[in-house]
Amino acid sequence: MTKAVVLALALLASPAAPLQAQTLPFDMTPERPASDSPAVTTPTDDQGQNPAGSQPVTVAPIVEAVEPEPFQRYILPEGSLGLTGEFEDRLWSVYLTPQQAAAGAKLNIGYQNSIFVAPETSRLTVEVNNTKIAEEAIRSPETISELGLNLPKDLLKPGSNLIRLRSNQRHRTDCSIQSTYELWSNIDAEKTYLSFAGTDPLSMQSLDDIKAVGVDESGHTRFNFVVPALEQPGATMPLMRLAQGLAVLADMPNQSFSFDASKLTASGPGEMTVLVGTPAELMPLLPSLPDGAASAPVAGFVKDAKTGLPILVISGPTWQEIRSAIESIVAPTDVTAPTRRDVISTQRWRSPDAPFLFSDTRLRFSQLGLNTEEFSGRRFRTDFTIGVPADFYAAAYGEAVILLDAAYSSAILPGSHIDIYVNGSIASTVPITSSGGGFLRHLPINITMRHFRPGVNTIAIEAILETESDKVCAPGATGSNSPQFALFDTSEFHMPDFARIGQLPNLAATAGTGAPYSRSTQPVPLFMDRIDANTLSAAATFLGRLAAGAGHPVAVETVASPALIGNRNAIFIGSLSQMPQMVFTQMNISEASRNTWGPDTGAQAEGVDTQAAYNEWRDKLKGGLFSGQISVIEGWLKQNFDITLSSLRFAPRSEASFMPSSESSLLVAQASSPDGTGTWTVVAAPSGKDLHESMQALSGQANWEQLAGRIATYQSGAKTVQTVPVNSFKFIPTQVGSFSNYRLIAANWLSTNILSYAVLLAVLAVILGLATATMLSNLGRRQ
């Protein structure tokens, strides 16, 4: 033992050089690449220098291969998705490039559910291209859980791919109808995506790949334009046309545009950077321009050397050539006016596309995307969409019909009912009055069309089902799988003939279908108070929404002076303080708002009590107690007979002068041109920054579809849209005159003007009486 210790100490004390100089042992294994070679450190002395006489050994260090991070495509088109109630079915499409479809893909879904959801009986079903991928128990009340689902090879395809999320949820303990409103599963947008292996899915090869821009984790789609010649007047028209073409190609629900002259920022998910300019203008920003840009128009994708992300570059030796390059992108989206669309494109956020209905039409539920469903719960709800044109005029008298094929079991009690909703408002109710079960075969349910609006309309069917067992609510009763209600896809929706005539103003028609600009055969004058990044961003976002609603780009031409507009259809965009005087006159907007509209500073005039002055003027203008009594009577008439005092007037009230509130950050107004033959629309804000940011917010699907009346304002603080209804509108003929259409127009007008209708009936009765007296006076014997 002592000898072993002494030998070890002797070896440690011996000189190091001989050991360092010894050769590496012979290795019979195959030669390894440099990245896998062992790392050898050259020995040094205490001062960090090589010891005398030693020879450094040069061996490559180990470099482990780093696999690239998977490329992710967020897939929720409107941000976070809530699956509520006992049953909900959501279907939409995601556009993929050929490279993305060919790559191995994994679907990730993040969700969190209500604590009241019973995991043993609640299921979340996932389908891709009509193939069931998973059916998982819903069991994540405390935190967000993630489902990682490997997709079968060749399941995804280039182009549109259908994604379906379907929830069946049951309450843990409660069997009441009210308890079903406590059930929800929120799908987290940031954790819900398609993940692709490798870097190839990042690339974009053709202009068709623009459709695959997708969304970010909030459901937004952004096009970031970088244009060095941004403020040149000749660049504005082609840029506005390009923005509309991209909006139609992408066809996403929450699109916006931003402009910059010099800053090239990296694009993230749901974003696309677009460089536009001559090679001389773009070289400082992107040295690797597409081949041939110096001699011919070019439009295509290049890879950013810094980020590896694709950038859409549109270039040419002159701006005339750039216009040609832009046309290569936008021309396929053009249509030959007037062209009637069969559908309104909605599949990127709701599939299938909404059928466009112009006259008497019957559609089966299977054509509207609804399948036969058997339901064992307490509250069943499903919906579908249809589209109506901009000249829809049947809100006061028209009724559509659902021919319902359904069945309910003998357990369903009288008092249950089936409700129909149109755009979130109840339109009809059918009570179930008999016990013992029943089979409904084409049961007609009339739907008032007062809640229909131009563009896309959502019609929901909700069955409220009460049973004796639910009143008892024995343990385990909420998890019963015995079907109690069935809805069959043989049911039909019948849209009757309706009056068709345009109304001015009508912001709902502009938001829904782009009317009247979508059918203009001549370029629409576009007046902007100044050409800068904020104004161009707001203009491109607004025109992009019009183009998406119309289904094609709207031809526009920029005008430097309002005097050049005349009485044509026109659009005005800019700060309200810079708007022409005639805009205030035509829109009936208070002239004082030119200088006073803006954030409320909280300052008040000395000696004025705002609340006291408000009460004084209210009593003065409304007539005090008498006016209050009138308001009570009007409320009673509205509640019991659906009659308002405005419908009892011979002539419509004049429009009051409008003053935007300090809380409003954007205003959209519409009125006729000075001679009444054209339509003017104004988009204005207190400042350029408000114009850009608020227009971006208003363009979101949830806010955009609320535009209606003659004026709409967006409040950025509350994130709400307020509208001013139309008191007096003008008719704009859109169809060839026919007796049938005139009859329907008269029916709707008389239904909204009850006093005129009553007077007309009285006059006709008098005429009939006089005619009868005259006829009888000439009959019989005379003495």
Could you describe the 3D structure shown?
It is a single chain. The chain has 783 residues and is α+β, with helices and mostly antiparallel strands. It is 23% helix and 28% strand. It is built from 17 helices and 35 strands. The strands form eight sheets. The chain has a seven-stranded mixed beta sheet with strand order 29-28-30-32-31-33-34, with helices on both faces. Strands 17, 18, 20, 23, 25 and 26 form a six-stranded antiparallel beta sheet that branches. Strands 1, 2, 4, 7 and 9 form a five-stranded antiparallel beta sheet that branches.
Percent strand: 25-35%
- Helical content, roughly? 10-25%
Give the termini distance in whole angstroms.
Answer: 163 Å
Note poorly predicted spans: 1-67
| Gross geometry | globular
Q: What is the gyration radius calculated from CA atoms?
A: 34 Å
Mean pLDDT: 86
Helical stretch count?
17
Kindly name the structural category: alpha+beta
Number of strands: 35
- Give a short account of the largest sheet: 7 strands, mixed
